[in-house]
Amino acid sequence: MDIWSGKNFSQDLSDYISIIEKHYVGSLFDVRKLYEYVDKIPFEDYCLMDEIELEFVNYKPISQTNPKITHFRVNLLNTLASKPNIDPRFIDPIDKCSFEIIVTGFCDAVDGAEYKMAWHLDKDEGEGCGPHKYTHPLYHFQYGGKRVYGLPTGGMMLMGAPRLPHPPMDIFLSIHFVLNNFFNKEEEDFSCLKDLFSDFDYLNILEKAKKRMWYPYFKGLNDQEMSHPNLNLASLFPLAV
């Protein structure tokens, strides 16, 4: 599949870095870390991108945050691997997909106290392990998890449930997710995001990422007859059947 070609994915990543730098969005995270992966992606008919970690810093408060946080650090970890020679009409082309964000909030009013929250989105790898105890969509968002397990919670309760259905994300969609959810593009300091989000080349790379990661997923949500062995309504959104 052309959209899963490692060569094409590597080229998209190289172009993406240039676009980020053109709009000075690299001031929000260390875009140079992406350079390390451009030449590591195998030029095969599949995509393999080992775990990459990017760190974003926002020195502005975010509304409706409790306790009152002065500034934030967001660590994004993303992994993607597809299967070679796969026809998506019959099998899910994604072999492994993981998206994690760990948000650390700093409260200057409480002697620089740190507060953490975390979300992860991954593909369920529990096939063959018997029935799940709780609703377990094939791809799901989950709050908390191992990244905050064991931390003092104060009055907050952390649970493994619910797992919320959500389409998988590659590095392009992951960064787009972070920029849209943790930076206010209406703020003057982050106005570069408006230019980025309207950049034709940026939108073109996002469109290819959507075709790769989201189109098969949303098509599967319409598969009520369960004709696809992986991407079907029962697997993607168990509560619907």
In short:
By secondary structure, the chain is an alpha+beta fold.
What does this structure look like?
There is one protein chain. It contains seven helices and six strands. With 241 residues, it is of the alpha+beta class. A hairpin with a 5-residue loop joins strand 3 (94-107) and strand 4. The chain has helices at residues 6-22, 32-38, 171-182, 192-197, 200-213, 215-221, 233-236; strands spanning 48-58, 71-82, 94-107, 113-123, 139-143, 163-165. The protein has a six-stranded antiparallel sheet. The chain has one domain (2-240).
Task: Please outline the helices and strands.
Layout: H1 6-22, H2 32-38, E1 48-58, E2 71-82, E3 94-107, E4 113-123, E5 139-143, E6 163-165, H3 171-182, H4 192-197, H5 200-213, H6 215-221, H7 233-236
Antiparallel strand pairs: 1-2, 2-3, 3-4, 4-5, 5-6
Helix pairs in contact: 1-2
Labels describing this entry:
241 residues, six-stranded antiparallel β-sheet, 7 helices, 23% strand, globular
